[in-house]
């Protein structure tokens, strides 16, 4: 059953230079206990998609269309006060920068206990136990000592793990994770990913994992959506999409992974630069960088479904493994 459904979401930024269509007609769904990977280069719109789901888009940004359904209820119809009640409880976000979560002048235990009390009626000791257990789940040693610390007394990686623990405190139905393991070393990253998968399976939490790192997605996500210039250009089950990409952009991302390049040879690169969303041409946004583009690409491709489990926004579906190799 789909816990989170995003339908035709559009988030635009109205600037003096023009309208930036940061998220333009994005749709996907996440089932209970599943992880969806949202992948793309910087500026592709994946983080703004996460902020839009959470209701955290501020002026000059504005959600101008679509629906975000949490267990069948449209979050875009909720008031700011109602969304504040949902955030941290039914739906939570893990930010890339932990200091967007942590207050620098409050002890860790104060912040975690307040997070519990904001949504649960329990004693302070019970809330402290929940906080201690959450720190242990993300691999923080000596959690009682860490609870007494201030954020500045912790390393960057430790602060990120505390931020992840806070997101897990109330066992939300949906977690939006915006590259939360970027600051962590490989060992801790693997531990966090294991705990996240375990949480999703045991509690039925649906998760959207925003990242540019395909290697993380390969070992974590059940399904993948690839974003480019504010749109999802390809989606499908993780193993199928990574083994048999159909969109040239997806193929280029996979080919850029260092482990796929022959030793001693230059790394594969996608030619050109990501286009400015302020000066986006009509038609396929990827066509200036695509080796398969032709005149028909001057029109914008619609979402097609080449197989029951896959979606694709491209006029020239390809057996991209030839390109990847």
In short:
The chain is of the alpha/beta class and 325 residues long. The chain has helices at residues 46-54, 80-86, 108-117, 124-137, 143-147, 156-168, 186-203, 214-220, 238-243, 248-255, 321-324; strands at residues 2-15, 18-31, 35-39, 61-70, 73-74, 91-94, 174-178, 206-211, 223-228, 231-237, 304-307, 310-312.
Structural summary, described in words:
Helices cover 31% and strands 25% of the residues. By secondary structure, the chain is α/β, with parallel strands linked by helices. The protein has 2 domains: 2-90 and 173-324, P-loop containing nucleotide triphosphate hydrolases (Rossmann fold, 3-Layer(aba) Sandwich), CATH 3.40.50; 102-171, no CATH class. It has an 8-stranded mixed β-sheet with strand order 6-7-8-3-9-10-12-11, sandwiched between helices. Strand 9 (223-228) and strand 10 (231-237) form a beta hairpin. Helix 3 crosses helix 4 (124-137) and helix 4 crosses helix 6 (156-168). The longest helix has 18 residues, at 186-203. Residues 320-325 have low confidence and may be disordered.
